[in-house]
Amino acid sequence: MENLITLIALVVVIASILSSAIRVVQEYERGVIFRLGRYVGVRGPGLFFLIPFIERMQKVDLRVVTMDVPTQEAITKDNVTVKVNAVVYFRVVDPANAVIRVVNHITATSQLAQTTLRSVLGQSDLDELLSQREQINQRLQQIIDEGTEPWGVKVTQVEIRDVELPQTMQRAMAAQAEAERDRRAKIIHADGEYQAAEKLAQAARIISSEPASLQLRYLQTLTEIASDKSNIIVFPVPVEFFQQLWNRDK
User: By the 8 A CB rule, do 88 and 72 touch?
Assistant: First the structure.
């Protein structure tokens, strides 16, 4: 009986040792191996064995991480207070550095993204932030990627999502946009008047060169207004007609 208990205990111990020695790493993971506390390499994906009680493994996910950057309040270069949030896309390209050189690469990347976002906003004007967002995104991506490179992290993309402005600034921008639309409308109206005046001047020169054309224009106008009986027809009489009558009376 004692031999049976001893055998069972031995089997359990061996099974536990084997289970701790067998490791499976997924396709999107890598295992960073430490032997007695010393880094010895990266393994995976697949099935492999560790030396029990001597080797230890830490898994690292290689998939792209989508991280929201919390809303940051900053003052732009032209002294406007704004609130901006963003999203950062990054992935681990060097599993060993992601484990050895930083405690938590996700938290570290998040903190670096927040400080970089505030710094870049402080170096940009409000107009640049609103109209040249793509350039600011590229600048953010370059700065954050340079900071995370020693950690084995590659930042692939940074996107600014929302820009929140103070209410007073929103009203001022709305008034500016309305004034700009009024200016354009007045310019278009004035340009139309100028073109119409040019056409009328050309028509006057043509009519003055041919007096009979003025009479034809009179007749055409009478034909147009005679179609509606409710209109009052006014016959235009040339000034020359009255001059002829005056000369005849004399």
Answer: no
Supply the pLDDT for residue 147.
93
Residues 89, 65 contacting (CB under 8 angstroms): yes
Strands (E), 165-213: none
Report the C-alpha dihedral over residues 194, 199, 203, 206, rounded to 10 degrees: 110
Residues 32 and 52: their CA atoms lie apart, in Å, by: 15
List Cβ neighbours of 24 (8 Å cut-off, separation of 6 or more).
46, 47
Q: 162, 156, 132, 128: which is closest to 144 by C-alpha?
A: 156
Sheet holding 65-75, edge to edge: 65-75, 81-92, 153-164
pLDDT single digits (tens) 37-70: 899 989 888 888 888 888 888 999 999 999 999 8
Write out pLDDT tens, residues 100-126: 999 999 999 999 999 999 889 888 888
Which residues make Cβ contacts (< 8 Å) with residue 68, sequence separation at least 6? 85, 86, 87
71-83 pLDDT tens trace = 888 888 888 888 8
3 state SS of 230: coil
> What's the confidence (pLDDT) of residue 243?
64
Task: Cite the DSSP H helix spans in 67-158.
Answer: 95-100, 105-122, 126-131, 133-148
